[in-house]
From TrEMBL:
Protein name per its UniProtKB record: Circadian input-output histidine kinase CikA
Any Pfam family the entry gives: HATPase_c
GO cellular component: plasma membrane
EC number(s) on file: 2.7.13.3
Organism: Enteroscipio rubneri
SMART domains given in the database record: HAMP, HATPase_c, HisKA
Gene3D superfamilies per the UniProt record, alphabetical: 1.10.287.130, 6.10.340.10, Histidine kinase-like ATPase, C-terminal domain
Similarity field: In the N-terminal section; belongs to the phytochrome family.
Top-rank taxon, per record: Bacteria
Amino acid sequence: MCRAVFAWHMQSVCAAVCKGRGWMGMKRDERAASRGRRPLIVQYVVLMTCIATVLVATYTAWSYSEQARQMEQQMLSEARVLEKSVRATWDFIDYEQPNINYDSDGTYDFKGLYCSLVGKSVGKLFSMSTDYQYTLRYTRIDPRNALDEPDMFEQAAFESFYNEGSDEYYDFVDDEQGGRNFRYVGAIYLTQSCMDCHGGPKGELDVTGFEKEGLRIGDIGGAVSITAPAELYQAGIDLNTGRTAVFFVLFLSVAFGASVLFFRRNVTAPIARIEDATVEVGRGNLEVDLKGMGHSRELNDLATGVEAMARELDVLYTTLEEKVDSRTKLYREANALLEEQRERIARANQMLAETNEKLKEENEYRTNIVAILSHELRTPLTAILAFVDLWEISGEKHSEESRDCIEKVKAHSLTLLEMVNNALDMVRVESGALEIARETIDLVDLVCAVTALADPIARGKGITVTSEVPGDVPLIKGDWVQIEKILGNLMSNAVKFTGEGGHVRLLTTFDARSATVSFAVEDDGIGIEHDSLEGIFDRFVQADASISRKYRGSGLGLSLVKKTVEVLGGTVSVESELGVGSTFTVTLPVETVEEDELDEDTDRR
């Protein structure tokens, strides 16, 4: 049964890999057609054909462009040589003018043979000798002879000479008959010998009977225009390009055909054998023979791997059922263990919930007891302080001993009242019953109120209390009462732990970028050891037990400050050095009061 199931599974896998090839009696070509994809050899042929086409087209275009460039350079060189030959004739006639126009007795007799005439005649004879396939002529702007009038190409050349300062102008142009010609125009600059006919004064007749133009040495007196047919060169380029393309096509076709045969024999045929072997494995026939796969190391390794896979599958058939039973047993045991663990976790969660409920009830009970006790303590303490105040203002004379006892009673009562108030506030904060107000606060007034509360006790100890609120601190929205309690606790601690002659300072700053207000309470009192700073804000914690005995206190003040600051969304930190002093910094996020909001608040009031 296990062997049959595994054979069915392998058939499914092979069918998925072959993508619907249908190995039940189909031929290889039918499988290739059924899967809707081109065979590997076809893809190879298409790819190589595209590559060969791109290579031949690219090389043909590059070869054609390079030969065209060489043709242009060759025709330009020939035109320059021809132009220099004409100029040489021109210069020769100009140089021989004295010998031509002076007789042997020294009498000047102008023979009518001058440089431009000879140049034109040479050009005409040259053009006639080539049946006007090549033309050589002289041209200029405002010519003396209408036959020398420049055509459009020659006019463009003169514009280039005058505007760009070039000496020559050339390009390929098409004539009216559709032929392609190479045109070259070279500038002729006037020399000293040219001034007799073309210099000044302007309008005076020269020896040839024409009016002088008033030109100067270095001016452009005309140009040599040469036209040469490009058909012969172009035919050579076309022939060479065609031969090159045919050679490459033949070469690539032979190489491509040979590579296709090699690919079919050494790649696709062995792959087809391996494919047939995997189909047989999918059927359950594990006796496959893939020896003699050819000379490809990669395909031989692949065939060896398929044979090894078949052998391993054969071994797996014999042990699979045993492994399945073993694994099933392990799964059942694991499930049983998992179920048992689930029950334990459920019981533990139930016990945890019951414990949490008890702790919640106990915490609520403790909180209620603290609140009741604190409330019940405040009433007699308030009465005691009231009687002490009445005793002090009664006007009666009392002994020094009585007055000392009453002062101690008042001091201890105030300390106890502070502890009770801190305990009540702590209960409110921890129970979540603390309500946060949002009102407009002038921090100058708030700081003055805090320092006013701390100042009497400080003066009694000989301590100087100062405060500072810079002018850039704006009005804010916040809870006056809670901020006053926070600062009052910090100022009370600072005064308490500062000796006679010390200083306590409350500095207020505003950071517009983070929209926060910072209150720094600085003192030069006893300070705190570095090791004691870590738990300084915990409940019932003071830096030293001796401090608690000497200065009295419940250890709730700083913890209450921290929790209240956190409820307001702020932070509190401390920096201190033993024997130097401490700085407690409270930073609160605030919302500033705009001027229009202040006007609205004023109107409502």
